[in-house]
Specification:
Blueprint (H helix, E strand, L loop, with lengths): L9 H15 L9 H15 L2 H10 L1 H4 L14 H9 L7 H14 L4 E7 L1 H6 L1 E12 L14 E3 L8 E8 L2 E9 L8 E3 L11 E12 L7 E5 L16 E7 L6 E3 L2 E9 H6 L1 E7 L2 E7 L8 E4 L15 E8 L6 H16 L1
Length: 354
């Protein structure tokens, strides 16, 4: 009807809606029925453009849309099937129906994701490397190999869903059948197979809580709060074609009292004596790879910043390293001895004569 594909994205649907709304707007179109059709199209777009409305459909089907606020109500003067047809160009079984069905099936077969947090020292940001992740998840039961059946017994294909684990249930609005909604089979619980004798270890669940560990390879240059995904390391799915969820690891970088991190660069403050500041000297500066000798220039002023190129952190997925900036804080004696005071006074007199 709109000349868009059944799997059209939000942008194309919006463009099609604007075009059709202009054609049917009561101020421009005085033909009989144009105003009612304009209301239908507007209501349909309100449903299709609202993520919460789509989510409601995913969970509850068309019944979830009825009276949901932005969508059509049960007492509306038009049919929900007509609304979806306006945008898909077909009946209740195509277009977004197919998309919603595929999403529902994916949720039923895939296991849930797991999220964990780990804390690493700043030095680990420099080197990267393996990190052992230990967490609790839901894994396939080993004694029954995830089938839920007692070892040595057989599983039988569910006669209700014919082994699919899911069934199509009609979605009705009044006497009309708007389409079909994919639901989990009640008889087999979505497995597609019937268990005669349950596994005594998992009591037929096919899954069990388990603490697992694995090594996650951390790349150099990670930022604090960054997340990494380990595909298939989440909870085990349920059903014959089930996929495990993913594991998301949030990386927290522990603060290092020696340094302040600013992106790939590191900053620190080092104390130098007034004598070294005046006469020059040497200083051992801490780095993430050990101490590093630097020269203190003669006549160094308080707050002078020295730059150590390439002594910072690596940038993620790049070969470049940041720099280390060392701010020199000159230490002034607070209570010099009598002998020291006398020498300072002599120096002041000499400076005054120059």
């Amino acid at each position: 009807m709109l000349g868009v594909a059944r799997d059209a994205d939000d942008v194309r649907i919006k463009d099609a809606y604007r075009k059709l709304a202009r054609e049917l707007h009561p101020d421009r179109n005085k033909e009989p029925g144009a105003e009612d059709r304009f209301k239908e199209v507007s209501a349909a777009y309100a449903v299709l453009s609202d993520p919460s409305q789509r989510q409601r459909y995913d969970r509850f089907g068309f019944r979830g849309l009825e009276g949901s606020g932005g969508g059509p109500s049960a007492g509306a003067a038009f049919d929900l099937g007509d609304l979806f047809e306006a945008f898909t160009g077909g009946g209740g079984g195509g277009g977004f129906f197919d998309m919603f069905r595929r999403q529902a099936e994916a949720r039923q077969s895939r296991g849930s994701d797991v999220e964990v947090e780990i804390t690493i020292p700043l030095a680990k940001v420099l080197t990267g490397g393996p990190e052992t992740i230990t967490y609790t998840t839901v894994a396939a039961c080993k004694p029954c190999d995830g089938t839920g059946a007692k070892f040595g017994t057989k599983l039988h294909t569910c006669p209700t869903c014919k082994g699919q684990g899911r069934m199509q249930a009609p979605v009705r609005h009044g006497r009309s059948v708007l389409g079909y909604q994919v639901v989990e089979c009640d008889d087999c619980g979505g497995r597609g197979q019937v268990i005669d004798e349950k596994c005594p270890s998992c009591w037929g669940a096919g899954r069990e809580k388990k603490e697992v560990s694995f090594e996650l390879e951390l790349p150099p240059g990670l930022d604090d709060g960054m997340r990494m995904r380990a595909t298939g390391r989440g909870m085990a799915g349920l059903g014959p074609d089930a996929r495990s969820g993913d594991l998301y690891v949030q990386i927290n970088v522990e603060a290092d009292a020696r340094f302040e991190r600013r992106g790939p660069d590191l900053h620190c403050i080092e104390q130098v004596s007034v004598y070294d500041a005046v006469l020059g000297g040497h200083l051992k500066v801490p780095t993430l790879e050990g101490s590093h000798d630097v020269d203190i220039p003669k006549g160094t002023q308080p707050g002078t910043v020295l730059r150590l190129v390439g002594r910072g952190l690596p940038e993620l997925e790049r070969k470049r390293r940041g720099d280390l900036y060392v701010q020199l804080d000159v230490t002034i004696p607070k209570k010099p001895s009598k002998k020291s005071r006398a020498l300072w006074e002599q120096l002041r007199e000499l400076d005054g004569k120059d």
